[in-house]
Amino acid sequence: MGSIVTTEDTIAAIASAISLGKGGIAVIRVSGKDAINSCKNIVITKSKYAWKSHRVFHGYIKDNLENKLIDEILISVMHSPNSFTGEDIVELHCHGGVIIVNKVMETILSNNKGVRIANPGEFSQRAFLNGKIDLTQAESINQLINAKNLKSAEIAFNGIKGEIKKKIDSIKNDLIEQLSEIEARVDFDEDFSDFNYHDFSKSIKKIKEKIGILIENTKRGAYIHNGISIALIGKTNVGKSSLLNLLSKKDKAIVTSIPGTTRDTIEVNLTIKDIPIKIIDTAGIRETDEYIENIGIEKSFEMIKKSDYVIYLYSLEEGLNKDDEKIISKIPEEKLITILGNKKDLINSEKVNKEYLSNTILMSIKNNEGEKLLVEKIIKKCGSKQFENIDVFLNERQISNLNDCLKNLNDTDPIIANQLPFDLLSIEVRDGIKNLSRITGQELTEELLNNIFSKFCIGK
Length: 460
Prior knowledge:
Elements: E1 10-14, E2 25-31, H1 35-40, E3 43-44, E4 55-63, E5 68-78, E6 89-95, H2 98-110, E7 115-117, H3 122-129, H4 135-145, H5 150-160, H6 163-187, H7 197-226, E8 228-234, H8 240-248, E9 266-272, E10 275-281, H9 291-306, E11 309-315, H10 322-328, E12 336-342, E13 360-362, H11 371-382, H12 396-410, H13 413-417, H14 423-440, H15 445-456
């Protein structure tokens, strides 16, 4: 398999998140054949454990060009092949913050001609090329880093542990078994009875069901990865931003008594009873000549269409009027989680419009009253059952290859129905296997031959 970059170079990059003036420590990773020597060139240490594999030792970074010490650090070394990339790796644990981290990185590059900055994802790419991980594990690492909630992180970690590969390999082995018999029949037809199209069709159907479940679970898993979106809709100054802050337990939105404070959507990702949720605060809907506010109001109506669910808020102090009813009529019934009457602390609850009482929660967001009932409504509507049995999440590339495989298998249907020469089935099955192999990056020729010889004892 080819690479878009050469793996002969020694590469270096900042491997931890940094921010200006913040961060106790940062990690700079160096990988390649000259990783240890290049770091030896800039590290001063008296440790007896220096440069031994899988040991951490103390030292200082020295800029030889300026002849001065830069930082006090800890160094960890991993000798090939027992490292993430399969190459020699040195990780320099320096003090955090943009200034010092960039200075240490600059020192590595300027004091060593053979070291260059790593390309995006190049450490993971080298790990894949050196057989340390498969493609699904590499992609799951990126998924874990970008996880927006705990459930998404858990599923991404399953991919790192190899659960995606395990599922794909299971399907692929089923297809290899079918292809092995077809290939064996082509070469040794006299040793077999007539080809059973019915049994082959049943086997392929079961395989297609496995693929279908993976694809369907990924569609449902998209909610976990992105979060079920719930838009907070209502007129101005009814408590949408306050509700966002209450649910997120953070002051994410500006809250004032001035109508029209929120001009754009504000999103917060959180988890409620293991359900990943994306709460979206929207601009208050009202008649206004203010240009920017009108743009925000248009976005609010768009969010009714785009979001998975909607919570409609109104002020109990003002009551539910015709303007509210007009907006509510634009919300599909299946999307509406509840109508939320806020500012309960300001009125007598008996004055609430009885027509909407059955689907109305009375709250005082200011006094934190009614949150439990709202959470129960969210759980009931969104549900956690749709996330059951989802333990992996396939990305767009993987799903595309899986769909290609499914198309290959569907193309066997007319061959089976018309009982055309069975060796035609091998073309589609073989292409299906190749498409599965593209998911994990595995080659199949040797694997297929080994399977044929072991299963049918051919070669006597």
